Amino acid sequence: MGNLLAIICGILLANGQPALDPNVGEEKIFGDVEKGIAVGSVAQFSEHLGPQVYLQLPESEGAHYSANQAFYVLDLFLRRHKIAGVKFTTFGTSESNPYATGNVAYIVKGVRQNAQVYVALARRGDRWVITHLSIY
Amino acid sequence: MPLLPRRILTTFEQRRSRELAIVFLVLGILVLSQAVRLVWVAYLERGWENFQAEKAQADIAIAVQEFGNLQRSARRVAVDVGQQPDVLDYLRGRRNDRRALFAAVARATDAHECGVEVYDMDGELAAWGGSSGPSIRREVHIALDGQMTSVVVRTPVASQLLVASPVRTDGKITGVVVVRQTVELDYPLSNRFMSFVGLNDRLGNQLGTTVEFNFLGDTTGRKDGRWLAAPLYGIDNSRLGIVSILRPARSAVIEHLESGFAAFDTTLLVVLCLAGLLPIARWLLQRRTQPAGAIGLIAALWSVRYLMVWVGFPGRLISQSIFDPSLFASEFGGGLARSAGDLFVTAVTLSLSLWCLAPVTRVRQRKDQRSSGIVGFLWHTVVAIVMTFFLFWLLRGLGAVVRSALYDSTLGYGDPGIIVPSFAMSVMILSLGMLCVGMLAVGVRTTEHLLARLGSGRPGVIRVIILYGTAAVLFGILQDEPLMSTPYRLMCATCFIAATLFDRVSRPGAARPRIGTTVTLYGALSLFILVPVLQRNIEEHARSRVEAFAVEFLRPVDGWLKFVVEDGLRQLKDASLSQTDARTVSPTTLKDVPLGAWAKSTACREGYSALFSVLDSVGGEVGEFTIGSQTSLVSPFADALPLDSTGMVRIKSIGDGISAVRVYGGTTLLRDPSGHPSGYVRVVIAAGEQQLFRGDNPAVLRRSAGEPIESFYRPITLSEYRDGLLVRTTNTAVPYTHTLSDDIRATLNRPESPTVWSSETIGEATYECYSIRRGSDSHDVIVLSMERQPLLLTMVGLVKVPLVFIVAALLGGGVLAVVAWTRGRRYLFTFRDRLLTAMLLTAFVPLGALMFYSQYAVHHRVIEALSRRLEEETASIAQEIAGIGEYADVSSDLTLRPDRVELIASNAGTDFNVYVGNELRISSRPELYATGLLDSRLNGRAYAAVVLDGRRYHMESEHVGLYQYEVGYRPVLDAAGGVIGIVGVPTLYRQDEVDRELSERNAVLIGIYAVVLLAIVIATMILANRIAAPVQKLTALTRDVARGDLEISSRLPKAEGEIGELVQAFDAMARDVRRSRDELVQVERELAWREMARQIAHEIKNPLTPMKLSIQHLRQTYRDNAPDFHSILDTVTRTVIEQIDTLSRIASEFSSFARMPRRRVEACDVESIVREAVQLFRQDARVEFHVDAEGDLPSLQADRDELRRVFINILRNGVQATTGSGRIEVTVRRSAKGVCVAFRDYGSGIADDIRPKLFQPNFSTKTDGMGLGLAIVKKTMDDLGASIEIVSAVNRGTTVVLDIPIEEDARAV
Prior knowledge:
heterodimer; A: alpha+beta; Nuclear Transport Factor 2, Chain: A; six-stranded mixed β-sheet; 29% helix; globular; B: alpha+beta; Beta-Lactamase; five-stranded antiparallel β-sheet; 33 helices; 30 strands; 17% strand
């Protein structure tokens, strides 16, 4: 019985990785990011986060985060800042590193604020992942 | 007076309904909270307009009052300074000592953190300190006329409040004191060093709305109906400006209210669940030793934990400190570790779960597999293998957690500069520590089970070792990612075995395990489990960081840098438009626009060298701001940029290889409000490959300090090789003739390996090198090198782990001590504790003093070295500037061309400033003063030291917000020795290096002391244990003697000296007492036998008398030929027979007592005999029996029936003493001699006067019985060499304790 419980604890403790789809194009990823930010849900695009993501958000310092950490940091940001609208206006490719920039509006303490959003992708193995996300 | 009737209160107590009361209370608060929320929201919905108006009025009143408070505070400071004796004396003309005046001003500026200026009666500046600002001659003259006045002045980037206060002496005005205070920064340049929060932000946060203070002369404020405005007045009632408040929005207020209530309700929900679970938990705790109880407790624990995860308590409510995911966040367990705080709670839950499992997973009975047959042998072996693999799978899970603690966090565990870890890091380390202790406990329990299955003794241990070794190796082979090395798994297995064997060795003879020793052992072994895997992950994480940097290095960043330029253009355009829109266009206004736009831009945030400029319609410069080390590249590129309305970004690459710099720039059209083109805005930035295309401005100048490559605590250097030859490098230790090794080139030439790790020794240092090819072969190779940390620094970096363990243990012990003290239990400081404390204090106090002194000495030495360096640098620059008078490019008032300034700075290798009087005239970093970050006025103390005191060199500590740095000052003297200027060399841009050096030296120092202290603690504990052990053993033996166990000679501790003499004396005393006791026992036995004989005689005489009388009567009637002879005969014979029966019964009883039966001695399982005896009494429903037997009890050599009779006698007494319903508890434990059986009842108890007679034969308090039960028990115990002890109190019950030895030798003959 003790071993059964130990197995359960081991399952809880062991770290797992989600399944990844290598066939997702960059347009789909940018679309997921835009949608995710708009509805305030990181889960919409969390599967595209790379193993190391450089995040820069308002009122915090930029740093490299793991995909796990980036999820929760973004989740906290989206909970604190109510998104009023987001739109990617520019898409570019910088020698096989696609990026998108746009505008995002959010409301803090009843005051609407505007910011720029920048997302860049890179190739990791056979799929695109988000390596840089800035909102400010 | 109680609120409820006593009967109800008593009922509540009896039914333990305190928990129920809490549940109802919390429910009530929850309901009330919902009601209040609904009412409040309804009130806001209905009376919103009134509420909004009232709030806006209240907010604006607060804002006006706050501004008034600022003025009053500044006035107080001005008045205080004006009353200082040194100030009065100088202004009065009694003293001409400006040094004292400067000192008084410096004290005021340090105390109040503001700028202070003292003007004499002619309106000339006599002394100053703190921040400077625009000239205020008008206000000074107003004050000299006797009127205190206040004004808000504008600097290019800030608004400053000034209060001018006249100084009166003997009724005459002799001077003016002016206090300057920055109230608002016009650009948001704030980072981790600049903690300034302006009025707007401060009040905005306080009031929960947007506040705007406007001192630009605007009289009406915002013309938007959403704003409410009020005027601001000065001390002299002059109008200074206007404050506008954004009226609160209903949705925002309601949302804020709802979120507040949601947080409150979430907390209440968790409290409600905990309160509701409390009685269940209490019930389950009583049944913790049963499997169902243990599982129930664990289920309850994890239910609470997952409830907390589901409602996001407390992480989502707090989101700061240890619950901030930017410090640590992992997704495992579905939210169990989404922050450091959550991981800690999960670790506590897991530890409690293991504690619940402990009693039910104890090894009950050793199964010797050899006696189980082949099938049994195979079964045990299979189970053992499965258990082993599960254990190693759990170990792998632990490895995953430790890896996550590194990879999913931004905490620098391995940084040797951090000796005292932050709170978040301490919590993480503690969580990992708890998991390691839990892992160790699971490992020990598994090992115990394996030993039970595979055989005890040495063969069993060897089998377990072989099993663990095989599993450790196989796990590494079978798992793709074992997460830890095979030697590490073997080491963990060794820890499990060592802890198990230590537990066994320390158990026999001890009633309980030694808690302190166990805790220390587990703590030490947990360190062995944690530290190696932590260090390995730190190394791997460092490598992964290098690989991430390398990816950034290779990846072109054009898209990002174009974005930065476009963002800059947008900011500049918006700023320019807002200025034109306000119809306050003026050259002066537009001149400041680039600085403000830069401060809000991404270029500022990222720290890029940048140029922001506003141009007129023909390209003429209206305003410009430049910053950064690459401005010499940025400016020419900017000049060459065509005026373009499209905003297209152009790129130029300058240089090649790792020295290459890419410059990005663009322009866009500016239109006025009517749509006509009015000019252009231009932005240019530069980024070097060497900095991985990141900004290289100092952190203090950025809006957000990112992660430049240099901030990584193991510096990374870049080297570039072409065809194996070194082309350029940032590592000064690499010789210019260095070549890339053939092995690396061969590896990189393979298509499938574009990168490779290697290790290389250059000079005295070893580097870990990550080589990357840029093309398809090894023609062009970039190498990122990271110096391997010396072992000392690595140990220093890891000393924080045991430090956290020790602090946590001390805190935990302290909490337990406080809890015990509040419950009336006092911890008795033993001899060992006192000895340990004395030895530790003797070692710690001088060592602690030495450590602090050493730290001070190190700091002093570093500052001294810095001072010497600044001295040399200022001397070199002063000399160069003094000599410049010979050249044509210096004007008479000491100004220099920018390129000359740069050349001097480059030659000296440092930045510098030159002051004339107190004004900054020359600077190699003019942008620092343009941004208002640094004050352009010469530091007052420096002026006093260099000009007034005539010092040739002076060093001053200055600060920018929280950022402290040093400045060296030296006068520039002309040929006649006159001061023509003052050179200042700040360490602002180099302070990071100085701080790093200081922290590393401190880290090594403190680390060494920490290691020494740790060694002292360990050595002291060992010594204290060794010294105190004989005393403790003697104390334990004293207790045994008091209990009656006098056979102590074989257990005496070995000791020398005084303690040895004490031991010998104790042994002699015990022998004397034993001899006296034996004699006493003999005498008592004789007395008892005599008494018994007397009793026998008495009892026998009793029936004999009626027998004699009866026979005599019969003989008489026979002689008399009585007519009723037959009836008399019948009566007499009946009487005689009855008396003979009585005699026979008496003889049987005494025969049973005195009999020495032939015993059948065999190995007896005490627990089973106890349970058999208890079973006989379970028919009695009144009494509840509870048997608690320790596992793995030794067998006794005794007569099974005899033992059972003893237990039956005692149980019978207990049952008979229990009136009504009750409970009898039987515990069976190991003891020093063998087995200890205790019977406890809650019956009527035994009076003190009766207790001495309990074991006397024929003594009884009952009406029936012969009173021989306990006497029989006593005799049996004596025969077994066991002891019996009875503790009782009237109406409180009785406890009978039997201590039976295992060995026959211990028994009395």
